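Slide 14.
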Amino acid sequence: MNIRAARREETRQKILDAARDCFCAGEFDTVSTREIAKRAGVAEGTIFNHFPTKEDLLICCVGQQMAEAIEKGLYTMDPEWCFVDKMMHVASYRFTQVGLNPGLWQVIMQQIVFSPRKGAVHAVMESSGLIAAIQALIEEAQLSGELNRDLPPVLIQKTLMSLFLFTIHEHFSTQNFDCEDMCGTLRELLEVQVKGIWASEPHLAA
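Slide 15: predicted structure.
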C-alpha cells in the first residue's frame, strides 16, 4: 500500500471510529455528519468522499464490527464442537459487542433492521462475512449428517439469522444486554430448530 492509499485508509478509519462513537450516544436522525466530521478531525465533505450516505456509513460501522467478531469466533473455534456450539461461539463474540455498545445496536434496530431501504440487513451481514461463515458451518453440518441434507442451506441460514435478530430484539426490549443471558436465549431457540419442531412420525388420533 502506497502512502496516499494508507492515508486514505487512515482517514476512513477515523471517520468510522468517530461515527461509531456518535451513533452510540444518539439516535440516527439526531447524529449529524458535521458532528461526526468534527470528532474525526476532517471536513464534512470528506465523509462523503468515503461514504455516499450517512446510512452507508452506519452499515460500514456495523459491518466492520461484526467482521471482527466473526473472525475471532472462527479463529478460536474447536472443529470438534457440534453445530450449535459452533454457532453459539460465534454469536457470543457478537453479543459481547452488543453489550458493550447497546446504543449502537439501538440505532441499528431502528435504522437498518426496520429500514425501508431494501437489502440493508443483507448488506451488513454479507459485507461482514457473517453469511459466508454461517453457510460454511451449515454445509459442514449437513455433510456430517448433523443437519437435514434435504434442506437448502440458504433456508437454514435465513432461519438462523431470524433467531439471532429475535434474540437481540427480545433483550433490547428489556434492556438486558448480558452476554450470557443473550446466549442462553439463542441456544434454546437453536436447539429447538436443530432437533425439529415437528414429530418425526405422524401420530394417529386416538
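Speaker note: The domain at 1-51 is CATH 1.10.10.60 (Arc Repressor Mutant, subunit A).
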